[in-house]
């Protein structure tokens, strides 16, 4: 294979930055299918970022923000129809339907390939096809997890540079026969000669497709983050979860936090919450409990494997943060604000101020006049939101002021506690410790959350979301739960992380949150650490070990004590009402439901009835 055989390649043979035969063959095949005007290998350099961001400004996709307020930063407003992950259009195309399981959309790989090949045919006409090499996790890993995204979107190239270790350095790791994940993306909006482009090209027909056996991703029709930045949810969760199942490790939807006690003892904590349920905020927490400090390792994804010492070590595969903007402010999350303000940030679907800065709901200093995310004039009297509820900032992790020094260590960090959590206005207490690993797996398996704006669907309806992975599982959920149980069986339980279930979102009768959340969650983290050390009490309840208010450090907390009691309450009737919902979910999981989960369910019912 030579470069000359790649139609549209920008340069001559010796400008092709790789000799990887499989990569070159794939690039050629995709170029022949999609017929771009040009093919460009992305190198990840500053110059390339400059060139592409200027091009995006000219195309009207990017607005350059006020250099003094948001240095070297841009705002993109998407097509109003392309604002979130599209779970109904997301497919796991395993050879056998049962391997995709009851929680995923499935289609036979051959059938999907033929449908998508027709969509891809000529879909890059009039555009540039970028070949974007990237690495998930540290480049210094013994076996770096490589990928190449082919895309026709400059927005994607620029965002991938923030979110992954992208460009020449990743390509250099790809020696000639190194395996890599093939990730193909097109916005699905070819341009006829003379046709003017729109600021946010996309297609009404969308497919976000995964072929877990061949470790491939095919995405068509959307430019939105989780649908288009294929290193994130598609690779690091859906494909990686299938790899992890085959190879005996865990790819999880978890933040990684480093907590430092007043005695300078370090604890690493991983936490799985569904999208828009507080991962980024907890990852950047400013503890309000005196003497406690926190540092950030990751805000969305953790890859965990056993170290030689029998402990579970976590690595964050990502390189940037793709955070929910609304709700982020100097009081709720100053760390995110500082990371963003350091510059080099791409905002999507937030509002624009008259002086070229950005604004979103709950940010301080609400202006009297704005341009909203739809490009319309907006004032505080307007009856709609200025920023889309799923509007995002995309910003480099390296700018995070609380970044832990060990963030790029290929070894990862040993995890002491795993937290599961969701958004439940009732029933689920502020914090609840599992009796053991299998019980913790049951907690994760049956966790539930109210739907958010991070994906299409009815906001507020409760759904079961095992380990916050329901939209991100690359295989059968029953096999996945068995995998979690096996991880525990094959380990020395005393070295395994302790498992906790948290709920920051319980509400009182008047709908207000019972717990102040954010930095005050450090009071819960402190109790968790004390449970690990065995230095604090808890009540043994039918659902697990739950603290009373006196077990928590509430010094200086400005909250009605009744609210704290209500946040911690385990109400038997509420849990009895939860049982049929859990039953329904376990039935839905079907034949592959592990016996261990069924046993835990029976034990829970017995405890509730005794
Ligand atoms: P992620 O998508 O899981 O990373 O979630 P984020 O951390 O971005 O948070 C999503 C939304 O939940 C934002 O609007 C936050 O302000 C809000 N949020 C995060 N943590 C808390 C908390 O402890 N309490 C409350 N009430 N809201 C929170
Ligand atoms: P998150 O996911 O909400 O978990 O940060 C990003 C996404 O929706 O693509
Ligand atoms: Mn997040």
From TrEMBL:
CC cofactor note:
Binds 1 Mn(2+) ion per subunit.
EC numbers for this chain: 4.1.1.32
- Kindly give the Pfam families that the UniProt entry links to this protein: PEPCK_GTP, PEPCK_N
For the keyword tRNA-binding, the answer is no
Q: In which pathway does it act?
A: Carbohydrate biosynthesis; gluconeogenesis
The Swiss-Prot or TrEMBL record annotates one GO molecular function as: GTP binding
So what does this thing catalyse? oxaloacetate + GTP = phosphoenolpyruvate + GDP + CO2
Residues engaged in binding substrate: 85, 224-226, 275, 390-392
Active site per UniProt: 277
- Which sites bind Mn(2+)? 233, 253, 300
State the Gene Ontology BP annotations: cellular response to glucose stimulus; gluconeogenesis; glycerol biosynthetic process from pyruvate; oxaloacetate metabolic process; propionate catabolic process; response to lipid; response to starvation
- Reading the lineage from the top rank, the first entry is Bacteria
Keyword Nucleotidyltransferase belongs to the record: no
**GO cellular component entries:** cytosol
- What Gene3D superfamilies would the database entry show? 3.90.228.20, Phosphoenolpyruvate Carboxykinase, domain 1, Phosphoenolpyruvate Carboxykinase, domain 2
Query: What does the entry list as the binding residues for GTP?
Result: 276-281, 392, 423, 518-521
Location of this chain's protein in the cell: Cytoplasm
**What are the residue boundaries of the Phosphoenolpyruvate carboxykinase C-terminal P-loop domain, all occurrences included?**
249-607
Q: How is the quaternary structure described?
A: Monomer.
Classification via PANTHER family: PHOSPHOENOLPYRUVATE CARBOXYKINASE, PHOSPHOENOLPYRUVATE CARBOXYKINASE [GTP]-RELATED
Function comment: Catalyzes the conversion of oxaloacetate (OAA) to phosphoenolpyruvate (PEP), the rate-limiting step in the metabolic pathway that produces glucose from lactate and other precursors derived from the citric acid cycle.
What family does this belong to?
Belongs to the phosphoenolpyruvate carboxykinase [GTP] family.
Q: What is this protein called?
A: Phosphoenolpyruvate carboxykinase [GTP]
